[in-house]
């Protein structure tokens, strides 16, 4: 009986210690909560793995099939951030990781059908960071416009 009580208490304590990596995500932690983003528009958001905002989901509506290019820049150089593209059915289409110390990263994936597709932005390590994201149909330019910095003006 004593062993059963100890096992039950241990289980309760273990379950109570489990933390939710998305407890402070703000309503975009899961694919069904994806926030819409417009094509060819820069969007900013932030992620903070240590405080419970590990993942952001975005939704992009595509009128045509083709190449989808996603560009991501993070404010904090030491933040490691992954961006992935998913089909309208949640099938993974591609992923790239912006490693610590890198600048902007870019991912281009083929899109077979029009419709809603999803972008998952996930912090893997490092400090909390704001990020800027742009999704474009076709292959986007590799850099900013001449005379501009690496980040868009807001």
Give a structural overview.
Helices cover 10% and strands 42% of the residues. It has one helix and nine strands, in the order H-E-E-E-E-E-E-E-E-E. A five-stranded mixed β-sheet has the order 1-3-8-5-6, with no helix packed on it. Strands 2-9-4-7 form a four-stranded antiparallel β-sheet, with no helix packed on it.
Proportion of residues in helical segments = 10-25%
CATH fold naming = Jelly Rolls
CATH architecture: Sandwich
CATH class categorisation: Mainly Beta
Please summarize the sheet with the most strands. Answer: 5 strands, mixed
Order of helices and strands: HEEEEEEEEE
Mean pLDDT equals 83
For the CA atoms, what is the radius of gyration? 19 Å
Which helices and strands occur, and which strands form pairs?
Blueprint: H1 2-17, E1 35-36, E2 43-47, E3 55-62, E4 66-74, E5 80-86, E6 92-98, E7 105-111, E8 115-125, E9 129-137
Parallel strand pairs: 1-3
Antiparallel strand pairs: 2-9, 3-8, 4-7, 4-9, 5-6, 5-8
Give a brief description.
It is built from 1 helix and 9 strands, in the order αβββββββββ.
Defining key terms:
42% strand, Jelly Rolls, mainly beta, single chain, 154 residues
């Amino acid at each position: 009986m004593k062993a059963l009580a100890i096992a039950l208490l241990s289980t309760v304590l273990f379950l109570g210690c489990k933390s939710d990596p998305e407890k402070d995500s703000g309503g975009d932690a899961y694919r069904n909560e994806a926030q819409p983003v417009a094509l060819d528009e820069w969007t900013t958001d932030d992620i903070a793995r240590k405080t419970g905002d590990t993942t952001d989901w975005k939704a992009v509506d595509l009128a045509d099939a083709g190449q989808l290019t996603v560009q991501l820049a993070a404010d904090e150089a030491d933040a490691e951030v992954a961006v992935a593209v998913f089909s309208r059915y949640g099938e993974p289409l591609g992923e790239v990781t912006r490693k610590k110390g890198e600048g902007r990263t870019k991912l281009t994936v083929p899109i077979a059908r029009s419709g809603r597709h999803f972008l998952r932005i996930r912090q893997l390590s490092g400090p909390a960071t704001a990020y800027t994201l742009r999704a474009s149909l076709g292959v986007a330019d590799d850099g900013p416009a001449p005379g501009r910095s690496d980040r868009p003006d807001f």
